[in-house]
Amino acid sequence: MSGPATTTRTQISVTSYYYRRGGAEAVMLDQNTMLEEHGWSIVPFAMQYPLNDESDWSDRFVEEIDFASSYGTLERVRKVAKSVYSFEARSAIGRLIDDTKADIVHAHNVYHHLTPSIFGAVQAKGIPAVMTVHDLKIGCPSKLMLAPDGVCDRCKGGKTWHAVQQRCLKGSLALSTVAAVETSLHRALGSYRNNVDRFIVPSRFHLDTLTEWGMPREKARHLPNAVDVSHLSPADHVGERFVFVGRLAEEKGLTTFVRAVAEAGVGATIVGTGPEKAQLQRLVDQLDADVEFVGYRTGEDLFDLVAASRALVLPSECYENAPVVILEAYGVGIPVIGSNLGGIPELIADGETGLLAEAGDVEGFANAMTDLAGRPDREIAEMGAVGRRFVETNFTREKYLDGLLAIYGELGL
User: Fold this and answer.
1) Torsion of the alpha carbons at 320, 325, 327 and 331, rounded to the nearest 10
2) Burial of 408 per CB tally in 10 Å (0-12, 13-18, 19+)
3) CA dihedral defined by 94, 98, 102, 108, rounded to 10 degrees?
4) How far is CA 137 from CA 15, 108, 217, 294, in A?
5) Helix axes 324-331, 377-394, angle to 10 degrees
6) What CA–CA distance (Å, rounded) separates 372 from 113?
C-alpha cells in the first residue's frame, strides 16, 4: 500500500445521493473513507435529500429532483429540463472548486439529478475529472442495455430513438423520451468523451462494452471494487436455504428465481424491497414455493442472515457490473450461484466458488440449487472458503487504494 500522504489533497466527491443507498453509493463512501485515512480532505457534492448523511458542505448541495413527487405542470417541466442539463449543478460545482481549491473531482452516479453538465465546469477550472462508471448509462438511455424483450444493443452508435420506441424506462413513453434526449444531448456535447479525464470501471465486461459504445479506451481503467471482509466471519454451520439480496426489480431475474426454487423443491429467502414485491408474492402463492420475504436488512443483521444460508443466488437478467454482494457472500463463507451474464462471471469460478447458470433459465438455476442442496456441508463450506480467499487476495482496500492513487498519479496528483 502507498505510504503516508505528504501533502493534503482535496477531492470533491460527486454523487446524486449522499448516503448508502445502493452499491454505487457504498463504493463512493468507502472510497472516501480510504482517502481520508490516507490524509485526503473530502468535500461531498450532491443534491438535497432527506436521507443524506450529515455534512458541513450540505448547504452547497443543489435542489432535489424527485419525480415521484406531485409537481405541478410547470414545475414538472422545469424539473425535467434540469434533469437533462443542470445549469444549477454546473454553477454550484464551479463555485465549490474555487472555494475549496480542490485538486480533483471524482464523480459517481450523476444522471438525472446533477447531470454530466458538471464535467464542463470542472474542465473549465483546469482540474482533472474522474468518473467511476457503475452502469451502462454513458451509452444506453436506460443504463441497463435491457429492453422489454431482453438484453438489447439497439441504441449502439447513438441510435437512442430505439429507447423511445421500446419504452425502455418503466414502460413510459415520457420517461424514455427524456432519457433518450439526455443521452443524445450529452453525446453531442461530448460531456463524457471530452470532459472526463479517466473512467474507472469495476468490471472488464463493462469496460469492453462501453469502449465499443464510444467511451475513449485510452481514458478507461479497470479497477475492481474493494471489500473489507476482516470483520466478517463464516457461520459455524452450513445453512439449508438459498438467499437473494438486492432490489426487487424485474431486471434482477426474481421471477426466474422463484420458479427455480419451486422446481428444485428448496427453501429460499428474499432480502430487499422494490416494485416487484407484490407480483413476486403472488407468484410464490401460486406455485406454493417455500420463499420468505424479509424486507430490507443491513449491517450485522444482513451478514448474519447471509452467513446462515447455503448459497447466495444472483439471477440477474441484465448486464450487472461488479456486484459487491457476491464478494460479501464470499466474505461470510458461502458460495454463489449467478447468471452467466455481464460482469458476474468475472467474480464466480464455476465449480470452485459457486455455479453459473444461463440468465432466465429456470431449469438451469433449479439444477444449480439442487446440486448444492445435495452436496455434503463440508463441500459447501470449502467453496465458501475458496471464495473468501479469492476476496482476500484480489479485492482488498490496499489494492484498491493503490490502484486509485496510481490513476490519480496519471493526472499529475
Assistant:
1) -170
2) buried
3) -20
4) 14, 12, 16, 31
5) 120
6) 43
| Local confidence band at 1 (pLDDT 50, 70, 90 cut-offs) | very low
The Cα 255–Cα 251 span in angstroms is 10
| Domain range summary for the chain, segments of one domain joined by + | 10-138+192-226+396-410, 242-394
Residue length of the chain: 413
Nearest Cα neighbor of 293 from 317, 267, 269 is 269
pLDDT tens, residue by residue, 79-96: 788 889 999 999 999 999
Domain 10-138+192-226+396-410: give its CATH architecture: 3-Layer(aba) Sandwich (3.40)
CB of 12 closer than 8 Å to CB of 98 = no
Name the residue with cell 482535496: 10
Look up residue 85 and give its DSSP letter.
Answer: -
Whole-model pTM? 0.90
- DSSP character string of 232-253: ----SS--S-EEEES---GGGT
Burial of 236 per CB tally in 10 Å (0-12, 13-18, 19+): exposed
Q: What is the pLDDT of residues 273-312, one digit of tens each?
A: 999 999 999 999 999 999 999 999 988 999 999 999 999 9
Residue pLDDT, tens place only, 224-240: 999 989 889 888 899 99
Fold for the domain defined by 242-394: Rossmann fold (3.40.50)
